[in-house]
# Entry
Amino acid sequence: MYGAALGLRVHAVSSKLKSRRTYALAAWALAFGLAILLVMGAFASWAAHARGLAVLSLVPAAGLLIMLPWVFGLWRRLKFDSEVQRIMLAAGPGACRFVDFRDDNEQLSPDFSAAFGLPDGEGFEAFVAALDGDHEARLSAGLDRLRAGGEDLVMTVAGRDGLRHFEVTARAVPDRVAPIGMVVWLRDVSDAVAARAARQDAQDRLNDTLDAIPLPIWRRDADDALIYCNKTYAEIVETDAATATAGRGIELVAEADHKLIHDLAERARKTGKTTGAAHHVIVDGARRLLYIAEAPLDHGGTVGAARDVTEMEEARHQLGQHIAAHAEVIGSLSTAIAIFGPDKQLEFANDAYAKMFDFDPGWLHNKPLFREIIEHLRTNRRLPEVPDFAVYRAKREAMFTELIEPYEEVQYLPSGISLHLKVLPHPFGGLMFAFEDVTDNPGPGEFSQYPDRGPERHPG
# Structure
């Protein structure tokens, strides 16, 4: 294993560093002692008139004295290097390991064992051995390649229990020919990995939910490129989601209509509001009408959805045909008929209605409100005489929200004309008023059946 080839225990590394400094200091002390002895011997020889021997003693003494500063400098450099490495190892993020390839010297940051829950004295070998089997092999192989001159290493590894994750960053210490060492940083990223897994799990659940929705849903970036689509979208464009979102993406509509769709997204981004339009799309070989909408997102992109409105459009067309047919039938009746919508606006009036109350057909065509019509009828004396017109008008308007069953009455107009009125709630909301002239055959006296009016007989 790589750790076995290079690693030494922390206490062995510390002993080796101390030994280097001790050897340097011992060499300095020995050189100094020998120099003193040689100098003393030279003085003794000089005193004994053995000048030749004195000179021979002084030469090696001078050499030793010259070496003393160099040996002392070597000791100081070793001490400085040791202190610098210790400070760097302690200051780095997480745990750190330094290896010198020249002598397989290894240094570990303080509390290396405690940082990874290892027994005291255990080092990098124990850390590697505690990894998941596949991660252990990958890390060892990567470090081997780095030592052989390969690229720097950055990878995330997991413990055997899968609960703890560590980011490993290894950098070579370069020299002129080959790396002379490497530094390995180890950082516990378990919380970050767990958070990333939680986000991915939430994203997967969201994607599953969106895939279950039977509507095409998609997302665009700020450049209008398609970056996501759900399963329904991919099925419509007859491919998978990855292919549908590759490059600029595959649009729902034909190529000739791409600009229209992109204009929707652009308008949504500029206005900050949802925009939409109906477009025909081929779905399962059939031409369908889809209402396509784009809504702006905070990051500058848009989210889109489409719904099939083909059947709704067909139903609306059929309803229009039915309404037109009914209008044609009602228009030919002699009974005067007026239909008001839930908003109390006139939706339809036949020719008999305009003729009976002397309305301008063009004015009726502009769809006046019920209040405007009843005011017009009062002005032209086409309403029964009532003691309080405001109360009468309020009760008529209340029919729009309170009338459930058909209501009938006979109206006696100041002109002597008698009208039979029938008011019916319309199935689509609003009311339908039907008037019939019964002046020549009024029948028995009619009473109001509408709540709050009371059984008061209309005057003849």
In short: The two ends are 117 Å apart (CA to CA). The CA atoms of residues 200 and 206 lie 10 Å apart. Confidence is low (pLDDT under 50) at residues 1-18, 444-460. The chain has 15 helices and 15 strands.
